[in-house]
Design brief:
single chain; mainly alpha; two-stranded antiparallel sheet; about 65% helix
């Protein structure tokens, strides 16, 4: 491909990838924040489990969260799903172009050849999802702190191991790819199928398994935490001092914690409504 056309292609692909990520991660964070806000207002009556008012673009938005009720489907239902898939697909295309075909996967000092390094990279994403899903499908899922600690140690181990067999830049990106793969698999293999089963029960006027919604919410919560790290890794290739260091994997491990703390501080229970008149948030 002509060098100029190649550069334009890269530009639009990266633009698409970043914008799709904004749509996906932004909607995930919004719903996580909304759930925490609604669930702490104490507005429980009939099938309404929470409600709140938002202000934006010169008006108030009144939002209610309603339980699924057998036989009661809303006339119009909006899903958020394609943003996740498009982000992951565009990211994988970039991974192939820049790393698997572009020569950024190995260096003259790498212990592996390109083919073996690519196999390690792809395998890390597949194995990462399988291990994560096994952990959170096991009894450990009932103990959030234990599961998070195990996953964090495994993530640090992956960062360390990858840094020893591929370039530092590629190791960073593949840690992000592991989390991105887990996130999109959460959406398409756990969250959406669970929601679809619940909606089928609503349409068919059958009893609803609300535990499916609880498990979907848990996976969505995980996605908000991983999203902070994935965004960091997306911009890390502009900072060779970070990924090029011998201890880059340790720096990444520390920055992951910083991102998680930021997420926990932002998406937190609001003050009781009786104590405030207006809650000023990050509204556009």
């Amino acid at each position: 491909m002509d060098a100029t056309l190649s550069e334009w292609f890269h530009l639009f692909l990266r633009w698409f990838h970043v914008f799709a990520g904004i749509l996906w991660i932004g909607s995930t964070w919004f719903f996580s924040w909304l759930d925490r806000t609604l669930e702490n207002l104490g507005a429980v009556r009939d099938q309404i489990t929470g409600e709140t008012y938002l202000v934006h673009s010169g008006g108030f938005y009144y939002v209610q969260k309603q339980k699924f009720v057998p036989g009661q489907m809303p006339p119009v239902l909006h899903w958020f799903r394609w943003e996740a898939l498009l982000t992951w697909v565009s990211g994988v295309i970039l991974l192939v172009i820049v790393y698997y075909l572009g020569g950024a996967m190995v260096s003259s000092e790498s212990p592996l050849g390109l083919g073996a390094a690519v196999a390690v990279g792809i395998g890390s994403m597949v194995v990462g999802w399988v291990i994560y899903d096994l952990i959170w499908s096991s009894p450990i899922a009932k103990h959030d702190k234990l599961g998070i600690a195990i996953c964090y140690l495994l993530l640090v181990g992956a960062a360390f191991g990858l840094s020893k067999v591929i370039t530092g830049r590629a190791a960073f990106i593949h840690v992000g790819a592991i989390m991105g793969t887990i996130m999109v698999a959460n959406v398409w293999m756990r969250i959406l199928p669970g929601q679809a089963k619940m909606l089928a029960a609503v349409r068919e006027n059958r009893p609803i398994d609300y535990s499916l919604g609880d498990r979907a919410k848990q996976r969505s919560k995980h996605n908000t935490y991983m999203g902070t790290s994935v965004v960091l890794i997306m911009i890390s290739n502009h900072f060779p001092t970070l990924y090029g260091s011998e201890y880059g994997w340790a720096a990444l491990a520390g920055l992951v914690i910083v991102g998680w703390i930021g997420r926990a501080l932002y998406i937190r229970p609001p003050k009781p409504m009786a104590a405030i008149q207006v809650s000023e948030g990050a509204n556009g």
